[in-house]
Amino acid sequence: MDLDLVEVAPDANPPVCKIMDFNRFKYETAQRAKESRRKTSSTSIKEMKYRPKIGTGDFDTKTRQVARFLGEGHKVKITIMFRGREMSHPELGKKILDHVAETVGPVAKVEAEPKLDGRNMIMVLAPDRRAQQAGRAPEGGRRPGPSGPGGASGPSGEVAAVPAQAPDAPADDAAAAPEAPPAAPPVRTATSPS
Questions:
Q1: pLDDT, tens digit (0-9, with 9 covering 90-100), for 49-77
Q2: CA distance 45 to 3
Q3: Number of helices and strands in the chain (H, E)
Q4: Element (H, E) at 37
């Protein structure tokens, strides 16, 4: 037997020692430390830059990214960059920041209100933990789907097609009855301007 006398609690009065395999003790201690490091989440600040004259497509794309960052648990610093005469209209930047905050409102809260900082207007959004937890399904994260009564799903969650039958029609009559042809889509003709 290869056992050692290991001091497990040196700060206790009197110090606590155990007779055990020291290499195993070191390994288990390292594993516990690794597990605790893995469970901690590091939040960082992401930044998204907008312009006062941003188009709707760009606005939607950038705002989707902001929502994704917030969903991952990061804080997001939103910056409106002004150039030239745009500085004389900070209300345009404020309007954009308010629209972003309204769009991601269900998953975020405003941590720092919009303020003008030189040629930039800055606002900081933080993820709203309560809203994210309320949005999760109570059944261990599973989404409600057709796998309940009236639906069918396979082992991996894919939905199988279930043929519908009329409740009063026998199965052999349904196969013998001719089906009505599908309705043709309406025909559209191009007209030239007069």
A1: 999 999 999 999 999 999 998 888 889 99
A2: 49
A3: 5, 6
A4: helix 22-39
Reduced to 3 DSSP states, what percent helix, strand and coil does the chain have, rounded to the nearest 5?
A: 35, 25, 45
Cis-peptide, bond into residue 14, ω within 30° of zero: yes
3-state DSSP of 45-82:
EEEEEECCCCCHHHHHHHHHHHHHHHHCCCEEEEEEEC
pLDDT in tens, 150-172: 444 444 444 444 455 555 545 55
CA distances from 97 to 51, 148, 162 (A): 10, 42, 48
Structural domains in the chain, CATH included, are 4-39 (no CATH), 45-134 (3.30.110.10)
Structure tokens at 16: 């606590």
Q: How far is CA 188 from the centre of its chain?
A: 42
The CA radius of gyration of the chain, in Å to the nearest whole number, is 31
Of 55, 52, 68, 79, the residue nearest 103 (C-alpha): 68
CB 107 within 8 A of CB 67: yes
Q: Strand 120-127 and strand 45-50: pairing?
A: unpaired
